[in-house]
Amino acid sequence: MPVPAVSFVAKSGTGKTTLLEQVIVELKQRGWRLGVIKHDAHRFDIDHPGKDSYRLTAAGADTMLISSPEKLAVVKKHQASPPIEELIATYFADVDIVLTEGFKQSGLPKIEVHRAERSSTLLCRGEQHDPTLRAVASDEPLELDVPVLNLNDPVEVARFVEERFLGGAKR
């Protein structure tokens, strides 16, 4: 059975990362094992000049993995971003759920983060009707065809994730 996943999407500056961080803390306290994938539409680099990992990648390694007793990181060059489903299947078999930030064009179920002062329109219920939208976390009341969660209540959002995607409270 594939690992369930849900993507938190929003316009930039809405508070996706802040909400996701709080939901992660709440779900961890409830005993769930979590994976997180952050989509970056721009280029990023975790290697830095002068570091051994940078030198090895710069020398031509197509895949470079650095490992320590606490964590590991993989730098893998590719021509195009792999599909989100491939990333989940490859790297997240050992978690209960994968939460993503971004990936608004994916087919993953989505929770849209909405802040009234940032925008009066929604990504998933604006010009485009995204059928994968499962809820909106908002700081204002909205009339929608999906549940509207309180953006300022990460416990409520975590409970929704737990009930909708994890089959209820962890036993």
What report would you give on this structure?
The chain starts with a strand and ends in a 6-residue tail after the last helix. Strands 2-5-1-6-7-8 form a six-stranded parallel β-sheet, covered by helices on one side. The model has no long low-confidence stretch (mean pLDDT 90). The longest helix has 14 residues. It has four helices and eight strands, in the order βαβαββαββββα.
Q: Care to count the β-strands?
A: 8
**Low-confidence runs of at least 5 consecutive residues:** none
Mean pLDDT level: 90
Structural class: alpha/beta
Query: How many helices does DSSP assign?
Result: 4
Ends: how far apart? Answer: 19 Å
Which overall shape is indicated by the principal axes computed on the Cα atoms?
Answer: globular
Q: How much β-strand is present in the residues?
A: 15-25%
Radius of gyration: 18 Å
Strand order of the largest sheet: 2-5-1-6-7-8
Largest sheet: 6 strands, parallel
Strand and helix order: EHEHEEHEEEEH
Keywords for this structure?
171 residues; alpha/beta; 8 strands; globular
List the helices and strands and how they pair.
Layout: E1 5-9, H1 16-29, E2 34-38, H2 52-58, E3 63-67, E4 72-76, H3 84-91, E5 97-101, E6 110-114, E7 133-138, E8 148-150, H4 154-165
Parallel strand pairs: 1-5, 1-6, 2-5, 6-7, 7-8
Antiparallel strand pairs: 3-4
